[in-house]
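batch job 7 of whatever, protein = (African queen) hypothetical protein
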Amino acid sequence: MDTRKLTEILRATIDPNQRQQAEEQLSQIHKIIGFAPSLLQVVMLNEVTIPVRQAGVVYLKNLVTSGWLEKEAEDGEPIPFSIHEQDRAMIRDIIVDAIVQAPDIIKVQLCVCLKTIIKHDFPSRWTQIVDKIHIYLQNHEPNSWMGALLCLYQLIKCYEYHTADKRVPLIEAMNLLLPMMYNLIVNLQADQSPESVTIQKQILKCFYGLIKFNLPLGLITKEIFTKWMEVLRSVMEQPVPEHTLQVDEDERMELPWWKCKKWAVHTLYRLFERYGSPVNVRDEYVQFAEWYLTTFTGGILEVLLRVLDQYRNKIYVSPRVLQQTISYIDQCISHAHSWKLLKPHMFAIIKDVLFPLMSYSEADEELWFSDPHEYIRIKFDIFEDFVSPVTAAQTLLISCCKKRKDMLEETMHLCMQVLRNQNGEYGPRQKDGALHMVGTLVDILIKKKFYNEEIDPLLSEFVIPEFHSQLGYMRARACWVLHCFSSIRFKSEMLLVEVVRLTVNAFLNDTELPVKVEAAIAIQMLLTSQNKVHKLLEPQVKAVTTELLNVIRETENDNIANVLQKIVPLYTEQLMPMAYEITDHLATTFSKVIETDSGTDEKAITAMGLLNTMQAVLTVMEDNPEIMLQLESTVLRVVGHILHHNIIEYYEEAMTLLCNLTAKSISKDLWTVLEMLYQVFEKEGFDYFTDMMPVLHNYITVDTNAFLSNENHILAMFNMVKVVLNSDAEDESEIYAAKLLEVIVLQCSGKIDNCLPSFVELVLSRLTRKVKTSELRTMLLQVLIAILYCNPHLLFTILEKLQESVPNASITQHFIKQWIHDTDCFMGLHDRKLCVLGICTLLEMGPQRPNLDEVIPKLLSSCLVLFDGLKRAYEARAEADEDTSSEENDEEEDEEVLSSDDDDVDQMTNEYLENLARMATKNSSQQGVNLTAKIEEYESDDDDESYEPDETAIECYTTPLDEKDCTVDEYIKFKNTLTALSTNEPTLYHALTSVLTEEQRKQLHAVFVLADQRKAQQDSKRIEQSGGKNSCIFILYSKPLLFTPLISRITLNYKGNILILKFPFEGFNTYYFP
């Protein structure tokens, strides 16, 4: 292919006037053999301008990503495009050379291409990449090393998450390349130029990727590992050139010297965390961990303590190096060996490193005044926490004060010394740090009796006064400390009243935005933990809500949206007049956020928080139709924007909002939204079908007549179900699709008979193909059972018509046999109830009933299995209804700290127990003791394979059979059916019951007894509702009354002319007698 012509086309793609035509040309020629290698050649031409080369490499990346792997054609479809093997071979031959030679901006995109190629072709089609990398690393030309290392990094990344047995090709390659990496970095360490250090950094990235999830001990022997540890130590000890101090501090961390140190300490931390703890590592690493802990801990600690000493002496250390160093120290707290080495230095670390880090800094001050919005964003950015030295400092402080003796006492002594400031040696910033440390330790302090007693005085003396500080950051810190201590038991109610007053005042009246944000969070936490605050806040809740809306709009902070989510349900009545204002405010802010969305995670979290807050408003206003009607247009504006612009990351929240809007009634506008949902489904496939399910269920059940009034409604539902079931996706979407059909059948019983043939045909079509899960199979059967229950004669008529196309097997018999065979697979209340009702309907059909000879011996035993499951399900639901939501505060208790000889292990896993047992056995044999006791396998309550759910996930999609006032009782129906059979069809009755064992007969009798009790309960409820006039009921109990000693516990009361009896016995409820 002519590279000059291709260059001109690529140049045209960056010209707005020619772009469309150029892109069409590329679309026409990209499938031609030779196109992809020619494109790569253009990208490699130095005489071509960088923008054109960029356009070419991006197109090549997309082409390789989508077309490298050969795809098979589906039935009736054309063969999908893939790059021809001839072209792939040419690209493989030159891709490494291209990466080595290309400028950095082109290298990045070529590396993405390389990763795709390695993923599909290494090692089966392309082992030469290893040789290519080897040649370039051997080359004495430094300019080739970086490109070769980038290629090696892509090779390592492709095996990053593979288990050890699947990493064999990589390990074989590293047998050749790892020694070269080592020699190269050792030789480079004398050269501290930016180019040399950048290559060293890349070597460390490769080494880190190699050991990140698996440490290949066959490749990295103890001797080799020791050499690499020496390399890491050397990198950490290497001084950073003085001239770097001339660079702006915000940019200094990006310099290669600090990046190299970052990867060195990152690797040290990973090695210790994953492979250096003898009681936590996997079996194959135990010996290594024991050796690592005793061999390297002292030396590494010495190096890292020098890093902290630099920081203590005001010498610059990059934030990431500092954060990883502190994290490494945190790992040392848990191990007795490392703690002994660290202990003499720990308080100095707390005082001279953690304390300054946790104090208000110059950088904080500058950001507070120059950009308070950015200050708030950083302080509340959860992603920032992962790399922040301040967060690492908090974690280390908690670890040492919780796990090691005297650390809490010494830390609190320091904090109180700063707070009291008797000699005037500490300023406000240090006081901020002390309060920061105290708040961080709150969970430890409240469990220590000595400190718990002093919390009220501490708040009164050192926190409350700061609300009147002239310094905004101290007012913000006061709010933050109250947020931390919000869950304590205030001993003084006056103090709690004052806390609430000051916090609300700070939120409403403070002029500095960060203070208002901290105050808002404090209000939320106080409301969550202190019931008395609900009443205290009530007089100002409208003002607080209005201000929350303003702060949400100004900061776009999801934490403030969460505060509003907390307030709205607590003060529903007071906020009803503001419901529209709140929702409109949130909708406007949402529009603003997504319009300015730069694709950041923070923006996405904020937008989701706003949508969730809108949902909270709708939830609490659901029972007020007038308000819901007011809110509807605003919410639909938001939902319409999301769906119309295909903003898929908010689809789930949009569906939740629609679910709220359609929960009680469905307006004309909402019916038009159903059309929009169908269009979304057609466009996006069934990826979001499960998210749509609650809304679709509401459309069917909330206003069934309106749903049936337009045949397009039911057609849209059926088409969606058909697409999902015909996809053979084998995931939960198919189960939900079948459930939707069942809901339509039961909800619209008798009104959609003309649709049922299509339903049956679709379900049978899916059942004839492979069904991997019992959940899907039983759900598909359930659709047929529902049709049987609603219109048995029609079902079997449909099956007979379909039989014509399947002459060799009886569809009806196959359905019935599969159904009865699978009765133990039906779960939850609804599924089992419908199954019982279906069997009863089948038995009641009389002469028109299909032949049951093959299933009669199993029929009643299957029913007993269903009733056994129903009993458990009803008991589980009753227990769930009785559960209270109140939670008692944890008992205060002093937590034990570890002695210097103890290790700390948090997770009681089998792995840990096995390692402990092995170590105990080893140590006992060394002492001449024969240890024979065994630690049995630890069983976790979270992993019970025999667990069966008493209610299934899809039971929330109710039908008329699930309503509380449903008069159809499966127990009563079952007993009545069998009783009628014994009279009307004694032969069938005998065939059903004669095969029962004695135990099964007892179970059947128990079902009958429960049926009588449930009938009596129904009658009693009916009498209660009718006022009891001219009614009389007798309670029959078939077993002897053996509970005479309890007879005195029956209570009798009169209500008008009704006698009320309350029985304390199992199986009885309250009964009403006129």
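notes: Strands lie at 1051-1055, 1058-1062, 1070-1073.
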